[in-house]
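Take a look at my tokenised protein here and describe the backbone shape.
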Amino acid sequence: MDANRVPEDAELADVLDEMKSPEGPDATTLIKITWAAGNKEIAGWLKDRKNRRLIPHRLEKCGYVPVRNDFAKDGLWKIGGARQVVYAKSALSVTARIAAANKLIGPPGVTPHNQSL
């Protein structure tokens, strides 16, 4: 076990694993992760604004990286009416990460072009 790991890394990895068996979802958002965490302690940690800068680093340690939406000026994805960062598995190719992110934005025919307006 890595002595430098913090408890949030393991708790976050557990939540990601539980989201979709066996190895977590291909892409997700912080809102989805927080919802999946339910009443676990990690949910409170994720909601705490002071941790916002730490979350991407924790997700990277769990094998997830941010996916930029090149069709939006701010690089965010509009999902469920809210602009959000999408995180995808780092093991995926860039093309596969973007495809996984596009699956989160809604039904077929909805493109990043009209999601960023």
Q: What stands out?
A: Helices lie at 7-19, 30-37, 41-47, 55-61, 94-104, 112-115. Confidence is low (pLDDT under 50) at residues 111-117. The beta strands are 27-29, 64-67, 77-79, 82-84, 86-89.
